[in-house]
Structure formats: C-alpha cells, structure tokens
Amino acid sequence: MVDSDVLARRLLSLNESLRELARPEASDAQALARDSVLRAAVERWLQVAIEACMDIAYHVVASEGWTPPESGRAAFAALAAHGKIEVELAARLGGAAALRNILVHDYVSVDLELLARCVREDMGDLRALAKVASTWISA
Questions:
Q1: How far apart are CA 134 and CA 26, in angstroms?
Q2: What CATH number corresponds to the domain at position 80?
Q3: CA distance 19 to 101
Q4: pLDDT tens per residue across span 21-44
C-alpha cells in the first residue's frame, strides 16, 4: 500500500516546481543564455519536478512489491506494465528521466534551446503523472 504522505509531499514539490517553470522567461532560450541565475533556477526546478515524478514511481513500485527498477525509465515502465499509467506516458516520462540525468551528471553540455523547448512543450507529461498519482492517495 502506498504511503499517502510520501505521495502528497512529492506531489507538492512537483506542483511547486511546475508553477515556477510556468514563468514565461523559463521557456525562453535567449533569457536563459543572458541570465545565469534564471538558467540555474530553471535547471533546478526541472530537476526537482522530474525527480518528484521518479520518486513517486519508485515508491509505488516498492509499495506494490514489484521487481525493483534499475532506472527512472524502468520505474515508469513498471507503472505502465501494471496498468497504473499509459505506455506512451511512461515512454515520455522515461525521456524526462534521461533529461534529469543530463541536468545532474552532464550539466556542462545542457543545450539551452532543448531546455527551453522542454519547459515550453513537455510539462504536460509531468502534470499527467501528478493527476494520476493524486488518485493513489487514500483519504
């Protein structure tokens, strides 16, 4: 059984990060290039948002007693394999996990155009997981 408190705290963090990423300048590659503090903030908010999604996936997998995944991508795939999320959403979230790894481990080569495009176009997948995960919290 999932721990509602764990999920609620991760969802709160995810929603706070998504709110910050909704700022217009967060999806503007030129603004990110001009303002190193904005760039750092956007990278961090995106990292936190993706990690919150990964934490949710890992928590559900562990709570259900499924085989522990070896990666964030595998954690999302496990949710899909057990009918918790759609396969297509799991695949896109797996891409988000890869982006998180770039932000954390290969931070010197972050493509600002790609970063801005992800913020502009891909936050819907994180929101979709949040919407589904909120239904897993017992009252």
A1: 26
A2: 1.20.120.580
A3: 22
A4: 999 999 999 999 999 999 999 999
